[in-house]
Amino acid sequence: MSPEDRDFLSELFEAAVGAADPKLALRARLPQRPRGRTVVVGAGKGAAQLAAAFESLWGGLLEGVVVTRYGYAVHCDRIRVIEAAHPVPDCNGLIASHALFEAVRGLTPDDLVVALFCGGGSALLPCPPEELALEDEIALNRALLASGAPISVMNAIRKQVSRIKGGRLAAACHPAKVISFIVSDVPGDDPAQVASGPTVPDATDRAAARAMRDAWRIELPERLVDWLKGENGTAPSPNDPVLAGHEVQVIASARLSLEAAAARADALGIPAIILSDAIEGEARDVGKVHAAIAREVVLRNRPFERPVVLLSGGETTVTLRGHGRGGRNTEFLLSLAIAAEGLSFASLAADTDGIDGSESNAGAFADGSSATRLRALGRDPVALLSGNDAWTAFNCLEDLFVPGPTGTNVNDFRAILVR
Protein backbone atom coordinates (compact mmCIF):
# COMPACT_ATOMS: atom_id res chain seq x y z
CA MET A 1 0.00 0.00 0.00
CA SER A 2 1.35 3.40 -0.92
CA PRO A 3 2.00 6.01 1.81
CA GLU A 4 -0.49 8.25 0.01
CA ASP A 5 -3.30 5.69 0.34
CA ARG A 6 -2.41 4.99 3.97
CA ASP A 7 -2.50 8.70 4.79
CA PHE A 8 -5.80 9.15 2.95
CA LEU A 9 -7.50 6.32 4.85
CA SER A 10 -6.07 7.53 8.17
CA GLU A 11 -7.43 11.00 7.52
CA LEU A 12 -10.91 9.59 6.95
CA PHE A 13 -10.70 7.72 10.27
CA GLU A 14 -9.65 10.93 12.01
CA ALA A 15 -12.63 12.75 10.48
CA ALA A 16 -14.98 10.03 11.70
CA VAL A 17 -13.58 10.15 15.22
CA GLY A 18 -13.56 13.95 15.22
CA ALA A 19 -17.29 14.05 14.46
CA ALA A 20 -17.87 12.19 17.73
CA ASP A 21 -15.72 14.56 19.81
CA PRO A 22 -17.34 14.70 23.29
CA LYS A 23 -17.03 18.45 23.78
CA LEU A 24 -18.45 19.20 20.34
CA ALA A 25 -21.31 16.77 20.89
CA LEU A 26 -22.24 18.09 24.33
CA ARG A 27 -21.83 21.84 23.81
CA ALA A 28 -25.26 22.48 22.30
CA ARG A 29 -27.09 20.08 24.60
CA LEU A 30 -26.34 21.33 28.10
CA PRO A 31 -29.43 21.01 30.32
CA GLN A 32 -30.92 23.72 32.50
CA ARG A 33 -29.20 23.96 35.85
CA PRO A 34 -31.16 22.36 38.70
CA ARG A 35 -32.03 24.01 42.00
CA GLY A 36 -30.26 21.17 43.79
CA ARG A 37 -27.23 18.99 43.10
CA THR A 38 -25.81 17.96 39.73
CA VAL A 39 -24.52 14.39 39.80
CA VAL A 40 -22.65 12.85 36.85
CA VAL A 41 -22.53 9.08 36.34
CA GLY A 42 -21.27 7.12 33.37
CA ALA A 43 -19.38 4.20 31.88
CA GLY A 44 -17.65 3.25 28.67
CA LYS A 45 -14.31 3.41 26.92
CA GLY A 46 -14.87 7.12 26.28
CA ALA A 47 -16.62 7.92 29.56
CA ALA A 48 -13.71 9.81 31.13
CA GLN A 49 -13.42 12.08 28.09
CA LEU A 50 -17.17 12.65 28.17
CA ALA A 51 -16.97 13.53 31.86
CA ALA A 52 -14.05 15.91 31.36
CA ALA A 53 -15.87 17.61 28.49
CA PHE A 54 -19.08 18.01 30.49
CA GLU A 55 -17.16 19.29 33.50
CA SER A 56 -15.42 21.97 31.44
CA LEU A 57 -18.65 23.06 29.75
CA TRP A 58 -20.83 23.04 32.87
CA GLY A 59 -18.71 25.42 34.89
CA GLY A 60 -20.89 25.19 38.01
CA LEU A 61 -20.93 22.81 40.95
CA LEU A 62 -21.14 19.11 40.21
CA GLU A 63 -19.99 15.74 41.49
CA GLY A 64 -20.06 12.15 40.35
CA VAL A 65 -18.34 8.96 39.22
CA VAL A 66 -17.56 7.39 35.83
CA VAL A 67 -15.76 4.17 34.92
CA THR A 68 -13.55 3.55 31.91
CA ARG A 69 -11.14 0.93 30.58
CA TYR A 70 -7.65 0.59 32.04
CA GLY A 71 -5.39 3.15 30.36
CA TYR A 72 -8.29 5.32 29.17
CA ALA A 73 -8.65 7.67 32.15
CA VAL A 74 -8.21 11.42 31.83
CA HIS A 75 -8.08 13.98 34.63
CA CYS A 76 -11.31 15.44 35.99
CA ASP A 77 -11.39 18.02 38.77
CA ARG A 78 -14.69 17.08 40.41
CA ILE A 79 -15.74 13.78 38.87
CA ARG A 80 -14.10 10.60 40.13
CA VAL A 81 -12.72 8.36 37.37
CA ILE A 82 -12.37 4.63 38.04
CA GLU A 83 -10.57 2.23 35.70
CA ALA A 84 -11.72 -1.36 35.24
CA ALA A 85 -11.34 -4.32 32.90
CA HIS A 86 -12.77 -4.69 29.39
CA PRO A 87 -13.96 -6.86 27.63
CA VAL A 88 -14.12 -9.27 30.61
CA PRO A 89 -15.18 -7.68 33.93
CA ASP A 90 -13.07 -7.58 37.09
CA CYS A 91 -13.41 -6.54 40.73
CA ASN A 92 -12.68 -2.88 39.94
CA GLY A 93 -15.77 -2.85 37.75
CA LEU A 94 -17.80 -4.16 40.68
CA ILE A 95 -16.35 -1.40 42.87
CA ALA A 96 -17.31 1.13 40.19
CA SER A 97 -20.91 -0.15 40.03
CA HIS A 98 -21.26 0.26 43.79
CA ALA A 99 -19.73 3.76 43.54
CA LEU A 100 -22.31 4.79 40.94
CA PHE A 101 -25.16 3.65 43.19
CA GLU A 102 -23.60 5.49 46.13
CA ALA A 103 -23.33 8.68 44.03
CA VAL A 104 -27.08 8.75 43.38
CA ARG A 105 -28.19 7.78 46.87
CA GLY A 106 -30.57 10.15 48.66
CA LEU A 107 -31.40 12.47 45.75
CA THR A 108 -34.40 14.81 45.72
CA PRO A 109 -36.73 16.17 43.00
CA ASP A 110 -34.53 19.29 42.88
CA ASP A 111 -31.45 17.29 41.83
CA LEU A 112 -30.25 16.40 38.33
CA VAL A 113 -28.40 13.27 37.24
CA VAL A 114 -26.39 13.54 34.02
CA ALA A 115 -25.69 10.05 32.65
CA LEU A 116 -22.81 9.68 30.16
CA PHE A 117 -22.70 6.26 28.49
CA CYS A 118 -20.84 4.87 25.52
CA GLY A 119 -19.56 1.57 24.18
CA GLY A 120 -17.80 -0.77 26.58
CA GLY A 121 -20.01 0.06 29.54
CA SER A 122 -21.55 -3.40 29.68
CA ALA A 123 -18.28 -5.07 30.68
CA LEU A 124 -17.12 -2.15 32.83
CA LEU A 125 -20.21 -2.31 35.10
CA PRO A 126 -20.54 -5.83 36.49
CA CYS A 127 -23.17 -5.94 39.23
CA PRO A 128 -24.57 -9.43 39.66
CA PRO A 129 -27.79 -10.13 41.57
CA GLU A 130 -27.31 -11.01 45.22
CA GLU A 131 -27.85 -14.70 44.47
CA LEU A 132 -24.91 -14.68 42.04
CA ALA A 133 -21.25 -13.61 42.20
CA LEU A 134 -18.79 -11.64 40.09
CA GLU A 135 -17.40 -14.94 38.80
CA ASP A 136 -20.83 -15.72 37.34
CA GLU A 137 -20.94 -12.46 35.44
CA ILE A 138 -17.38 -13.03 34.20
CA ALA A 139 -18.41 -16.47 32.93
CA LEU A 140 -21.45 -14.92 31.25
CA ASN A 141 -19.32 -12.36 29.42
CA ARG A 142 -16.85 -14.98 28.25
CA ALA A 143 -19.67 -17.14 26.89
CA LEU A 144 -21.32 -14.21 25.11
CA LEU A 145 -18.06 -12.98 23.56
CA ALA A 146 -17.34 -16.44 22.16
CA SER A 147 -20.87 -17.03 20.86
CA GLY A 148 -20.87 -14.89 17.72
CA ALA A 149 -24.24 -13.44 18.76
CA PRO A 150 -25.02 -9.81 17.78
CA ILE A 151 -24.66 -7.10 20.40
CA SER A 152 -28.44 -6.81 20.81
CA VAL A 153 -28.64 -10.45 21.89
CA MET A 154 -25.65 -10.21 24.22
CA ASN A 155 -27.03 -7.11 25.93
CA ALA A 156 -30.55 -8.54 26.27
CA ILE A 157 -29.08 -11.44 28.24
CA ARG A 158 -26.66 -9.26 30.21
CA LYS A 159 -29.56 -7.11 31.43
CA GLN A 160 -31.19 -10.12 33.05
CA VAL A 161 -28.08 -10.91 35.11
CA SER A 162 -27.47 -7.48 36.60
CA ARG A 163 -28.58 -5.05 39.29
CA ILE A 164 -27.45 -1.95 37.34
CA LYS A 165 -28.24 -2.54 33.65
CA GLY A 166 -31.63 -2.30 31.94
CA GLY A 167 -32.67 0.99 33.53
CA ARG A 168 -31.98 -0.12 37.11
CA LEU A 169 -29.49 2.70 37.76
CA ALA A 170 -32.06 5.26 36.59
CA ALA A 171 -34.62 3.77 38.96
CA ALA A 172 -32.14 4.21 41.81
CA CYS A 173 -31.95 7.95 41.00
CA HIS A 174 -35.64 8.49 41.81
CA PRO A 175 -37.01 11.11 42.50
CA ALA A 176 -34.28 13.09 40.71
CA LYS A 177 -34.50 13.75 36.97
CA VAL A 178 -32.06 11.85 34.74
CA ILE A 179 -30.76 13.13 31.41
CA SER A 180 -28.81 10.48 29.50
CA PHE A 181 -26.29 11.54 26.86
CA ILE A 182 -25.44 8.52 24.74
CA VAL A 183 -22.59 7.94 22.30
CA SER A 184 -23.99 5.10 20.22
CA ASP A 185 -21.80 2.17 19.22
CA VAL A 186 -24.69 -0.13 18.26
CA PRO A 187 -26.34 -0.71 14.87
CA GLY A 188 -29.58 1.25 14.72
CA ASP A 189 -28.54 3.62 17.53
CA ASP A 190 -30.99 2.24 20.11
CA PRO A 191 -29.86 4.00 23.31
CA ALA A 192 -31.16 1.13 25.45
CA GLN A 193 -28.48 -1.11 23.90
CA VAL A 194 -25.50 1.14 24.61
CA ALA A 195 -23.66 -0.18 27.72
CA SER A 196 -26.76 -2.37 28.24
CA GLY A 197 -28.77 0.73 29.17
CA PRO A 198 -28.11 1.44 32.88
CA THR A 199 -30.37 4.52 32.62
CA VAL A 200 -32.42 3.53 29.54
CA PRO A 201 -34.86 0.62 29.98
CA ASP A 202 -36.39 -1.50 27.25
CA ALA A 203 -39.21 -4.04 27.04
CA THR A 204 -37.05 -7.18 26.74
CA ASP A 205 -38.01 -9.63 29.48
CA ARG A 206 -36.53 -12.79 30.97
CA ALA A 207 -38.47 -15.07 28.59
CA ALA A 208 -37.11 -13.20 25.55
CA ALA A 209 -33.57 -13.50 26.91
CA ARG A 210 -34.00 -17.25 27.35
CA ALA A 211 -35.29 -17.56 23.80
CA MET A 212 -32.27 -15.65 22.46
CA ARG A 213 -29.88 -17.85 24.44
CA ASP A 214 -31.51 -20.95 22.95
CA ALA A 215 -31.60 -19.55 19.40
CA TRP A 216 -27.88 -18.78 19.49
CA ARG A 217 -27.02 -21.96 21.42
CA ILE A 218 -25.08 -20.03 24.03
CA GLU A 219 -23.61 -22.42 26.60
CA LEU A 220 -23.93 -20.98 30.09
CA PRO A 221 -22.97 -22.38 33.52
CA GLU A 222 -25.83 -24.11 35.35
CA ARG A 223 -26.12 -21.33 37.95
CA LEU A 224 -26.85 -18.80 35.18
CA VAL A 225 -29.28 -21.14 33.43
CA ASP A 226 -31.20 -21.54 36.70
CA TRP A 227 -31.19 -17.78 37.30
CA LEU A 228 -32.66 -17.08 33.86
CA LYS A 229 -35.50 -19.52 34.59
CA GLY A 230 -36.70 -17.36 37.46
CA GLU A 231 -38.19 -13.88 37.60
CA ASN A 232 -36.33 -12.35 40.56
CA GLY A 233 -34.76 -8.94 40.09
CA THR A 234 -36.58 -8.00 36.89
CA ALA A 235 -35.75 -4.66 35.29
CA PRO A 236 -38.12 -1.66 35.25
CA SER A 237 -40.29 -1.27 32.17
CA PRO A 238 -40.01 1.83 29.95
CA ASN A 239 -43.31 3.16 31.33
CA ASP A 240 -42.44 2.64 35.00
CA PRO A 241 -43.57 5.74 36.96
CA VAL A 242 -40.17 6.11 38.65
CA LEU A 243 -38.67 6.86 35.23
CA ALA A 244 -41.20 9.56 34.29
CA GLY A 245 -39.68 12.78 33.01
CA HIS A 246 -36.30 11.31 32.15
CA GLU A 247 -34.65 12.38 28.87
CA VAL A 248 -32.40 10.46 26.48
CA GLN A 249 -30.28 12.00 23.71
CA VAL A 250 -27.97 10.20 21.27
CA ILE A 251 -25.20 12.78 20.80
CA ALA A 252 -22.86 10.84 18.48
CA SER A 253 -23.25 7.81 16.24
CA ALA A 254 -21.76 5.80 13.40
CA ARG A 255 -24.05 7.57 10.92
CA LEU A 256 -22.76 11.02 11.81
CA SER A 257 -19.15 9.84 11.80
CA LEU A 258 -19.43 8.13 8.41
CA GLU A 259 -21.01 11.26 6.97
CA ALA A 260 -18.05 13.28 8.26
CA ALA A 261 -15.60 10.81 6.71
CA ALA A 262 -17.49 10.98 3.41
CA ALA A 263 -17.30 14.77 3.44
CA ARG A 264 -13.55 14.60 4.07
CA ALA A 265 -13.06 12.18 1.17
CA ASP A 266 -15.03 14.44 -1.15
CA ALA A 267 -12.90 17.39 -0.05
CA LEU A 268 -9.80 15.35 -0.91
CA GLY A 269 -11.15 14.63 -4.38
CA ILE A 270 -12.41 11.06 -3.95
CA PRO A 271 -16.19 10.45 -4.10
CA ALA A 272 -17.47 8.45 -1.13
CA ILE A 273 -20.29 5.93 -0.89
CA ILE A 274 -21.73 4.94 2.51
CA LEU A 275 -22.85 1.33 2.18
CA SER A 276 -24.44 1.22 5.64
CA ASP A 277 -23.85 2.41 9.19
CA ALA A 278 -25.47 -0.67 10.74
CA ILE A 279 -23.79 -3.77 9.31
CA GLU A 280 -23.87 -6.85 11.53
CA GLY A 281 -22.87 -10.48 11.06
CA GLU A 282 -19.75 -12.63 11.17
CA ALA A 283 -16.71 -10.45 10.47
CA ARG A 284 -15.26 -12.93 7.98
CA ASP A 285 -18.58 -13.11 6.08
CA VAL A 286 -18.91 -9.32 5.98
CA GLY A 287 -15.34 -9.24 4.64
CA LYS A 288 -16.31 -11.54 1.75
CA VAL A 289 -19.30 -9.35 0.86
CA HIS A 290 -17.18 -6.20 0.85
CA ALA A 291 -14.60 -8.03 -1.29
CA ALA A 292 -17.30 -8.90 -3.83
CA ILE A 293 -18.37 -5.26 -4.08
CA ALA A 294 -14.76 -4.11 -4.42
CA ARG A 295 -14.20 -6.69 -7.15
CA GLU A 296 -17.12 -5.31 -9.17
CA VAL A 297 -15.75 -1.78 -8.86
CA VAL A 298 -12.17 -2.77 -9.75
CA LEU A 299 -12.99 -5.05 -12.68
CA ARG A 300 -16.25 -3.67 -14.08
CA ASN A 301 -16.53 -0.10 -12.76
CA ARG A 302 -19.89 -0.91 -11.19
CA PRO A 303 -22.05 -0.45 -9.16
CA PHE A 304 -19.91 2.62 -8.39
CA GLU A 305 -17.49 4.31 -10.75
CA ARG A 306 -13.78 4.63 -9.94
CA PRO A 307 -12.28 6.43 -8.15
CA VAL A 308 -14.38 5.80 -5.05
CA VAL A 309 -14.04 5.02 -1.38
CA LEU A 310 -16.59 2.63 0.10
CA LEU A 311 -17.47 3.37 3.74
CA SER A 312 -19.37 1.24 6.23
CA GLY A 313 -19.97 0.96 9.95
CA GLY A 314 -21.85 -1.16 12.46
CA GLU A 315 -20.62 -3.99 14.64
CA THR A 316 -19.61 -7.38 13.31
CA THR A 317 -19.04 -10.40 15.53
CA VAL A 318 -16.47 -13.19 15.75
CA THR A 319 -17.35 -16.76 16.66
CA LEU A 320 -14.23 -18.16 18.29
CA ARG A 321 -13.00 -21.30 16.55
CA GLY A 322 -9.31 -21.03 17.42
CA HIS A 323 -7.06 -19.55 20.06
CA GLY A 324 -5.37 -16.77 18.09
CA ARG A 325 -5.12 -13.04 18.76
CA GLY A 326 -7.23 -10.44 17.05
CA GLY A 327 -10.52 -8.61 16.90
CA ARG A 328 -13.47 -8.21 14.58
CA ASN A 329 -11.84 -5.52 12.43
CA THR A 330 -8.65 -7.45 11.74
CA GLU A 331 -10.71 -10.58 11.11
CA PHE A 332 -12.83 -8.64 8.61
CA LEU A 333 -9.70 -7.37 6.87
CA LEU A 334 -8.00 -10.75 6.64
CA SER A 335 -11.13 -12.24 5.08
CA LEU A 336 -11.32 -9.29 2.68
CA ALA A 337 -7.64 -9.64 1.77
CA ILE A 338 -8.03 -13.35 0.98
CA ALA A 339 -11.20 -12.90 -1.07
CA ALA A 340 -9.86 -9.87 -2.99
CA GLU A 341 -6.27 -11.07 -3.45
CA GLY A 342 -4.62 -9.57 -6.52
CA LEU A 343 -7.07 -6.68 -6.88
CA SER A 344 -5.97 -3.06 -6.81
CA PHE A 345 -7.46 -1.53 -3.65
CA ALA A 346 -6.45 -0.19 -0.25
CA SER A 347 -8.45 -0.57 2.94
CA LEU A 348 -8.59 0.30 6.60
CA ALA A 349 -10.88 -1.20 9.24
CA ALA A 350 -10.68 -0.01 12.83
CA ASP A 351 -12.70 0.40 15.99
CA THR A 352 -13.34 4.09 16.65
CA ASP A 353 -12.46 3.69 20.33
CA GLY A 354 -8.89 2.80 19.40
CA ILE A 355 -8.98 -0.86 20.47
CA ASP A 356 -9.89 -3.88 18.32
CA GLY A 357 -10.52 -6.81 20.63
CA SER A 358 -8.03 -6.99 23.50
CA GLU A 359 -4.80 -5.86 21.79
CA SER A 360 -3.37 -2.34 21.49
CA ASN A 361 -4.34 -1.79 17.84
CA ALA A 362 -7.59 -0.27 16.59
CA GLY A 363 -7.46 -2.34 13.41
CA ALA A 364 -5.19 -2.63 10.40
CA PHE A 365 -4.53 -1.78 6.77
CA ALA A 366 -4.96 -4.32 3.95
CA ASP A 367 -4.71 -4.37 0.16
CA GLY A 368 -4.67 -6.79 -2.74
CA SER A 369 -1.15 -7.91 -1.88
CA SER A 370 -1.70 -8.71 1.82
CA ALA A 371 -2.45 -12.42 1.39
CA THR A 372 0.40 -12.81 -1.12
CA ARG A 373 2.88 -11.11 1.22
CA LEU A 374 1.81 -13.37 4.08
CA ARG A 375 2.57 -16.45 2.01
CA ALA A 376 5.97 -14.99 1.11
CA LEU A 377 6.67 -14.78 4.85
CA GLY A 378 5.77 -18.45 5.27
CA ARG A 379 2.36 -17.75 6.85
CA ASP A 380 -0.89 -19.24 5.52
CA PRO A 381 -3.58 -16.52 5.54
CA VAL A 382 -6.41 -19.07 5.41
CA ALA A 383 -5.00 -20.94 8.41
CA LEU A 384 -4.57 -17.69 10.31
CA LEU A 385 -8.20 -16.75 9.61
CA SER A 386 -9.42 -20.20 10.64
CA GLY A 387 -7.61 -19.85 13.96
CA ASN A 388 -8.95 -16.34 14.67
CA ASP A 389 -5.34 -15.11 14.47
CA ALA A 390 -5.75 -12.00 12.32
CA TRP A 391 -3.68 -9.84 14.68
CA THR A 392 -0.69 -12.08 14.05
CA ALA A 393 -1.22 -11.78 10.28
CA PHE A 394 -1.15 -8.00 10.22
CA ASN A 395 1.57 -7.79 12.84
CA CYS A 396 3.77 -9.90 10.54
CA LEU A 397 3.00 -7.50 7.70
CA GLU A 398 3.64 -4.45 9.93
CA ASP A 399 0.21 -3.19 8.89
CA LEU A 400 -1.46 -2.79 12.30
CA PHE A 401 -3.21 0.55 12.86
CA VAL A 402 -2.47 1.92 16.34
CA PRO A 403 -3.90 5.43 16.90
CA GLY A 404 -4.24 4.98 20.67
CA PRO A 405 -7.35 5.74 22.76
CA THR A 406 -9.62 8.15 20.92
CA GLY A 407 -11.92 9.23 23.75
CA THR A 408 -15.07 8.16 21.92
CA ASN A 409 -16.72 5.05 20.52
CA VAL A 410 -19.13 4.92 17.57
CA ASN A 411 -18.26 1.38 16.62
CA ASP A 412 -16.43 0.04 13.58
CA PHE A 413 -15.09 2.18 10.73
CA ARG A 414 -14.36 0.51 7.39
CA ALA A 415 -13.03 2.17 4.25
CA ILE A 416 -12.08 0.56 0.91
CA LEU A 417 -10.36 2.84 -1.59
CA VAL A 418 -10.33 2.06 -5.33
CA ARG A 419 -8.46 4.68 -7.32
UniProtKB/TrEMBL annotation:
Keyword Transferase on entry: yes
InterPro entries the record matches: GK-like_C_sf, GK_N_sf, MOFRL, MOFRL_assoc_dom, MOFRL_protein
Keyword Kinase among record annotations: yes
Occurrences of domain MOFRL (ranges): 308-412
Top-rank taxon: Bacteria
Domain called MOFRL-associated: residue spans: 9-228
Molecular function per GO: kinase activity
Keyword annotations of the record: Kinase, Plasmid, Transferase
PANTHER family found in the cross-reference section: GLYCERATE KINASE (PTHR12227)
Protein name: Glycerate kinase
